[in-house]
Amino acid sequence: MNPPGLRVAVSEEDDMGDYGRPLEFGYFLVPNTGDPLLETARLADRLGLDLIGIQDHPYQRGYVDTWTLLSMVAAVTERVRVFPDVASLPLRQPAVLAKAAASLDVLSGGRAELGLGAGAFWEAIGAFGGPRRTPGEAMGALEEAVEIIRQVWSGGRGLRFDGEHYTLSGANAGPVPAHDIGIWLGVKGPRGLALAGRAADGWVPSSSWATPEVLAESHARIDEAAAAAGRDPAAIRRIYNVNGAITDGESRGFLHGPPDQWVEELTDLAVGHGMDAFVLWPEGDQHKQLERFATEVVPAVRDQVRHEREG
């Protein structure tokens, strides 16, 4: 599919095929205090993107709070869905996080999703009073959190959960979300990927650490766990944070090149390698990159994927 000279995103032996899910496209809004954050969010909404993801690092002094920004973004937009990409669980108690997500979903008319991570940057988390967990402890806490969040979203009364990291002791939940909020896990490694397949609604890796070469193995672990749990692997979303730059010059490697390169590489990732949503994390002029992505890349990828699926 790639024209001569264009760097191939992934190798043929890693081909995982296509889960057939509808494509979605989004923008990764870095919460820098001095940036025109709401203006950028409104632009993404006007350009017709499906998602806005916001990273969650409360200990980063140059960032505004992610949940406050998510609420403001939802308030000034009309159609785009918003999600933490991904929420830092060690600093977000899961029952309260569940209530916050459900409330945002209700207030926005069903436009909230929940990206969730086990935690990173443990010294910074500890500086903010959060727990310093081992990798095993962090994954155990994430698994407990997924169960607690689903309980809280049920709207039930007298909820109970007795875990190693979290508890519910007769909690009364509400409000119930306006739609079935997706829990999308930003995880890697065998245990995290198995958890995504067994208990989550989606997987949300970033191209910076989940390179195309590792996608096949990651999908396989998710799919195996999903099948073992009696779930359809195709029901699990695969959301890819794609870091790069759309340019007018020659290719400088994966996701660094002209629009036609982006179209070919994202199409490869969709129809050959299982990803179904692409959230742009651009380098350079943010508004220019966002506009080029929405107008020069997204429509062409939709057309190319449709053509390949029909062919």
TrEMBL record:
Coiled coil: none annotated. The keyword Oxidoreductase applies. Residues 35-249 form the Luciferase-like domain. One of its GO terms (molecular function) is oxidoreductase activity, acting on paired donors, with incorporation or reduction of molecular oxygen. Keywords: Oxidoreductase. It comes from the Bacteria. Pfam families: Bac_luciferase. InterPro entries: F420-G6PD/mer, Luciferase-like_dom, Luciferase-like_sf. PANTHER family: 5,10-METHYLENETETRAHYDROMETHANOPTERIN REDUCTASE, PTHR43244. This is Luciferase-like domain-containing protein. It comes from Sinosporangium siamense.
